[in-house]
Structures are given as C-alpha cells and as structure tokens.
Amino acid sequence: MADTVFSKILRGEIPCHKVYEDDLVLAFLDVGPLSRGHTLVIPKEPAATLDALSDESAAAIGRALPRLCRAVKSATGCEDYNVLQNNGALAHQAVFHVHFHIIPRPDPEQGLGVRWRPASSFDHADGAALARAIAAAI
Q: What's the Cα-to-Cα distance from 59 to each of 6, 42, 138, rounded to whole Å?
C-alpha cells in the first residue's frame, strides 16, 4: 500500500487533533472540514479500500462509529450529519487508506452536498440474477 497522509499520522510524523483511539481505530478532526466537527475515522490497518480491510478492523470501526457520531453531535450541537466512505478514484477517494467522514450538517449551506443520480430504471429479472451472484460471492 502507498504511503499516505494517514499512515504518516499513524506513525506520528504528522500531528492531528485526536478525538478517539483504540488498538485498531484512530479518529481525528479533518483539517479541511466541510463543517465544524468534521471527523475522520480510520483503521490502523493499512488497507486502501473497504473490501481490502480485515473483518476485525471493520468490526472495530463499526463499534466506534456510533459512539463517535454521538460525540460529534454532542460537541457541535448539530443533530444532522452524514457518514461518508469512498472507495476508489471514480468514487471520489482522495486518500487511499480506508476512512470514514462524520460530517455535521448544521444548515443547508454547510456540510456535505449530495446529488442522487439513479443510473436507470430497475430491471427485476436482472436484479434477481445480480442478487444471486452477489450472494454466491459471499
């Protein structure tokens, strides 16, 4: 895996405003926030995308995320927020180390803007075949 800004933060080469740490997870404030309280949650395991992450690290992040969301809400007073996770360049991943964004949405002008663009109408026959293929790959 490529050396990233997150691996440098994990090694202590770049400082961060840490909000949480355990054996498998680190969370810290984003220095390019979309809103006040924008927090990044990363595994300590080096994995570029979520599918490359071990079950153990994924479970650790899954346990930490709800607690961190509650903490961000409490500290910012913001009830609404997005949790964002991107995988790959086409999905807008900029740092190739798994990371989740907790982004408070205090008003319509701050936070994450989302535009939902459905690819096409849903074909139920194709959907049934695709569901079987995904289930078989698990």
A: 20, 12, 17
Is the model more confident about 38 or about 2?
38
State how far the Cα of 101 lies from the Cα of 120, in Å rounded to an integer: 28
Q: Indicate the pTM of the whole model.
A: 0.91
Beta strand spans in 45-108 (E): 81-84, 100-104
| Cα–Cα distances in angstroms (integers) from residue 61 to residues 21, 29, 121, in the given order | 11, 16, 34
Q: Please classify residue 27 by burial: count the beta carbons closer than 10 Å to its beta carbon, then call 0-12 exposed, 13-18 middle and 19+ buried.
A: buried
Asked whether 105 and 35 are in contact (CB, 8 A), the reply is yes
Selected from 3.40.1260.10, 3.30.428.10, 3.40.50.11540, 3.40.50.1170, the CATH number assigned to the domain covering 5-113 reads 3.30.428.10
Choice among 38, 97, 99, 101 that is catalytic: 99
Active site residue 99: yes
